[in-house]
Specification:
Layout: H1 2-15, H2 31-35, E1 37-40, E2 43-47, E3 53-57, E4 60-63, E5 70-74, E6 77-81, E7 87-91, E8 94-98, E9 103-114, E10 118-128, E11 133-136, E12 140-143, E13 147-151, E14 153-157, E15 162-166, E16 170-173
Length: about 190
């Protein structure tokens, strides 16, 4: 009886081919994949020193070879919920995080949005998390419900308590009725 069962199993395996839906796909490993650690759709959730929750995500994170302190982020996005109930969100095409010095260098269509309707656009920015600072050494445009700012650079200090436009700058005020907002300003 056992011999007949073994014969039946052997015959069945030869008669019915392996279901291709269950086959394990081939993994293609490139030389650079062996040197760099990669993670798709990383998500980092935390709380800052003022107990404000924040989230950082990206399409792809790649850490440099040999324990490099640099992590390259493709399409990074971040947001923080401020203690006053408002929020700030930021996005860019690329970011580089240095875990030794702790800045996040953003580049490529950097946009920052604030819940009060303010939007900052620039080519690159440097964010320092611990002191709550940001620096922009490229032309910057800041639009708000009643204001538009242009500058050759920008610095945010003390978690937004001080905002400085650098270089040749221009501020335009748009008078409006209370409760009215300017069209085209705000998150995409």
């Amino acid at each position: 009886a056992e011999g007949a069962l073994v014969l039946l199993v052997l015959m069945r395996s030869r008669l019915s081919p392996v279901d291709q839906r269950c086959a394990i796909p081939k993994v293609v490993v490139k030389p650079e994949d062996l040197e760099n650690l990669k993670m798709e759709s990383p998500r980092y959730v935390g709380i800052d020193a003022q107990s404000q929750p924040f989230t950082v995500t990206a399409r792809l994170a790649t850490q440099g070879a040999s324990g490099s302190p640099l992590t390259v982020l493709e399409e990074p996005k971040g947001d923080i919920l401020l203690s006053a109930g408002s929020w700030i969100a930021v996005e860019a095409r690329q970011g580089v995080y240095d875990k030794t010095a702790a800045p996040l260098e953003l580049s490529g269509d950097v946009s920052l949005f604030h819940a009060r309707g303010y939007q900052l656009r620039t080519a690159r920015a440097r964010v320092l998390f611990a002191p709550g600072e940001a620096e922009v050494d490229a032309p910057v445009l800041v639009q708000g419900p009643d204001t538009e700012l242009h500058g050759e650079g920008f610095r945010l200090e003390a978690k937004g308590a001080r905002i400085l436009l650098l270089g040749e700058s221009r501020i335009v005020f748009f008078p409006q009725e209370p409760g009215q907002s300017r069209p085209g300003v705000g998150p995409r």
